[in-house]
Specification:
The structure is a single chain. Helix content is 37%, strand content 30%. By secondary structure, it is an alpha+beta fold. The chain folds into two domains: 114 residues, no CATH class; 161 residues, Thrombin, subunit H (Beta Barrel). Strands 1-2-5-4-3-12 form a six-stranded antiparallel beta barrel. A six-stranded antiparallel barrel has the order 6-7-8-11-10-9. The radius of gyration is 44 Å and the shape is rod-shaped. The protein starts with a helix and ends with a strand.
């Protein structure tokens, strides 16, 4: 009995399909250039209605599939653009880093042209102990490169310190930023057409500044006055930039002036250095 019911439903579906096909054929066969009678109009309208019912699901599925394909295409394009954007950001970052390195090296080369009275050796910082950040650095030049103890060390911004120990291939530089600096460095401050003299006594990492004491000359020292080495002693040649004056006071006994000098170098960012030696030494 189940089989008969199934067969009848199956035959009913086939019958509907056959009728739909006949209606479609008849609607197409009807000429467009003549008036249709009522029966023909019914047949044609019914055929179009059946066609719309039959094709609607197909068109819906097709539209959804095309929409899905478009979304997939857009997503693929988005991923490609995103990847290109990330690559571009990386290239820009690398380019900016290279520009900074080139600028630093150019400034170092310009410094070398002003040191015609000196024998100099350029070097790269290869090590810096985070526990002694403002005390010392290690460079990639040593005895085999002509580096000797107590040579002055500068970068493109000014005086950094001196060589304290040397091996065949590396050297250690004691920085002026060392708060336990034992050697007082003789400096001079330019005021109009003359100089006043003093000694660097200590460094403040908080303000990146030196304290210059022992200024006995009774001269008004303006803010921004340039401070350079005097050349007295056997280590630092004359004229190496140390910094500029930001403040002037007097000592506890009102006998001499004390100047606060902003360091010309940034001790937090040292990558390349130049080791100096007097030609006559």
């Amino acid at each position: 009995m189940y089989k008969k019911k199934f067969d009848k439903r199956y035959l009913l579906i086939i019958g509907i399909v056959v009728v739909a096909i006949l209606l479609v054929v008849l609607s197409v066969a009807l000429k467009k250039d003549r008036d249709l009678n009522p029966v023909e109009k019914i047949i044609k309208d019914t055929g179009n209605f059946v066609i719309n019912i039959v094709t609607a699901p197909i068109n819906f599925i097709r539209d959804k599939w095309e929409e899905s394909q478009d979304k997939n295409d857009l997503y693929e394009k988005y991923k490609k653009l995103k990847n290109k954007e990330e690559q571009m950001d990386k290239v820009i970052a690398e380019s900016n880093n290279l520009k900074e390195e080139v600028a630093t090296l150019k400034e170092t080369l310009e410094l070398n042209t002003t040191l015609s009275s000196m024998v100099y050796k350029n070097a790269t910082v290869i090590n810096r102990n985070i526990d002694y950040w403002y005390d010392e650095i290690t460079i990639d030049k040593g005895k085999n490169d002509g580096i000797m103890k107590n040579m002055a060390v500068v970068n493109n911004a000014g005086l950094l310190g001196k060589v304290t120990s040397v091996s065949n291939h590396v050297s250690t530089i004691k920085l002026l930023a060392n708060e336990n600096m034992s050697d007082k460095i003789s400096v001079k401050i330019k005021v109009d057409d003359q100089y006043v003299y003093g000694l660097i006594s200590k460094y403040s990492a908080k303000n990146n500044s030196y304290t210059v004491e022992g200024i006995s000359e009774n001269i008004d020292i303006p803010k921004g006055a340039e401070v350079v080495t005097t050349g007295m002693g056997d280590i630092f040649p004359s004229g190496l930039l140390v910094g500029s004056v930001t403040k002037v006071t007097t000592d506890n006994f009102d006998l001499s002036k004390v100047a606060v000098v902003k360091a010309s170098v940034d001790f937090d960012a040292i990558d390349y250095v130049t080791v100096l030696k007097r030609k006559d030494s």
